[in-house]
Structures are given as structure tokens and as C-alpha cells.
Amino acid sequence: TTNSTTTINTTVNTNVDDVDFEISATEYAFSLTSITVEPGETIRVRITNNGSHEHDFVIDALDIQTAELDSGESEVVTIIAPAAEGAFEYYCSISDHRARGMTGQLMVQAL
After folding, report:
1. pTM for this structure?
2. What is the pLDDT of residues 97-107, one digit of tens each?
3. Contacts of the segment 15-19: beta carbons below 8 A, 24+ positions apart
């Protein structure tokens, strides 16, 4: 007789709100100023406005923009990193928030 054992590992995502990164937006800063991902990687990012003014989240190079979020509101964005390595700025486009330092970098690099 032949004995054979097969092990199968399966992960089932039952929470559709699972995210890879959480970013809090406040007056005039993001809680994460750098996110590093691998080329082609898909990530989900929840942006939550914990400030008192409206904020949003924009990555021009990847054509990503949330709605203008009121205090307490959140939005989840799915980001597919480009195949090429590089740095991609994210920022808040409301009023002068970007000029006041409300920016960060999505770093795409092979790990």
C-alpha cells in the first residue's frame, strides 16, 4: 500500500473591510508619510479623516482620488502598484493642505 498525505492551506477573507494600510488625515498631515510596496502589488488603504476640516487623498500618477471626506468619514481605495519602481506622491488636494505639508510617498520597489 502507498500512504500519501496532502496538506492544503487555505485562507478565506470573510471581512470585506480588510485593508493593508490605515491612514489618518488630520490638520495638515497624514499618519503614514511613506508606504512601500512591490511592483505590481495590489493593496487596500483606508483613509480616515480624524481632523476637523475636509480632507482627501490623491495620487495623480495613478489616477487615484477619494471623495472629500468630512470629519469622521473614511474611504477605502485599492491601489495597484505600477510595474516600474519609483516614488509616487500622495497628498490632500483641499485648499492649501498640500503646501502645508499634507503629503506622503508611495514607494514602489522590489523587496
Report:
1. 0.83
2. 999 999 999 99
3. 17/46, 17/76, 18/44, 19/44, 19/45, 19/46, 19/76
